[in-house]
Amino acid sequence: MTQQSVATYWRPSAVQEAVGLWALGFAGIIASFLAFGGTSIPKLVATVGFLYLPLIPMRWRDEDYRDYGLSARAWREDLVLFLKVSALVGPLFFLAFAGFVEVLPHLPESLARHLTPLGGEVHFRLRLPPRFGEWVVDQLFVVALPEEFFYRGYLQARLRDAWPQGRKFLGARLGPAFWVTALLFALGHLAIFQTWRLSVFFPALLFGWMRERTGTVVGAALFHAACNLFVRVLEASFFGGP
After folding, report:
1. How many other CB atoms are there within 10 angstroms of residue 211's CB atom?
2. CA–CA separation, 178 vs 173, rounded Å?
3. Cα 119 from Cα 107, distance rounded (Å)
């Protein structure tokens, strides 16, 4: 072995890199929640981590955000796909939410606590949550876009580098990277110790499919923000009081 080969820097594999950064971000969110729970600091830590942690290995390879889907190059396709998926999923989710609300009072209290933080008297009246305009900006630019860049943009792409195999489904190739990314996304939501958050695994499948379909995270970010806002509206409408 030559001195040159000994001096060669070790570089992690695609899986080691992706999962290692995910674990680092997850640990940072947990630590900030334990230290500053009840403040906006854990959300700030998550947002900064999602946007900047991938920059570390990206610099090694002379890459930028566009290489991981943060680009408007397919904005028309992203927008059309977002509108179509929203029109299909929105009514179905409303019916599922309304059905769950009807079943919720009949569930054992211990089970209900694990399924949802909601409770109390149900009286449906369509209403927006307070400061809804601020929620729109927050969900789009602080939550959805950073999360979609990290998970569907960076993480799913790096795992796909390691596991390129997959099957075509509705115009997108889905393989192990797609499923593992959705799983890590769901597990990442356990950083604040609420088991009902594991349910985000299911919308994560749609986010990941949209990313593979258009090659960017723009449509997925729009749909991610819309899902979060829709849930807020439903919570306010069903549980917001008489």
Report:
1. 27
2. 9
3. 11
In the block, tokens 């969900």 appear at 139
Strands 172-174 and 167-169 turn out to be antiparallel
Among 210, 208, 203, 214, smallest CA distance to 160 is for 208
Residue 172: strand pairing partners: 169
Contacts of 200 (CB under 8 A, 6+ apart): 185, 186, 189
* pLDDT tens by residue, 121-174: 788 899 999 999 999 999 999 999 999 999 999 999 999 999 999 999 999 999
DSSP collapsed to 3 states, the chain: CCHHHHHCCCCCCHHHHHHHHHHHHHHHHHHHHHHHCCCCHHHHHHHHHHHHCCHHHHHHCCCCHHHHCCCCCCHHHHHHHHHHHHHHHHHHHHHHHHHHHHHHHHCCHHHHHHHCCCCCCCCCCCCCCCCHHHHHHHHHHHHHHHHHHHHHHHHHHHHHHHCCCCEEECCEEECHHHHHHHHHHHHHHHHHCCHHHHHHHHHHHHHHHHHHHHCCCHHHHHHHHHHHHHHHHHHHHHHCCC
pTM for the model? 0.92
Question: Can you give the C-alpha Rg of the chain in angstroms?
Answer: 20
pLDDT tens digit string along 196-227?
888 999 999 999 999 999 999 999 999 999 99
CA separation for the pair 209, 220 (Å, rounded): 8
Token couple for 86: 């929203």
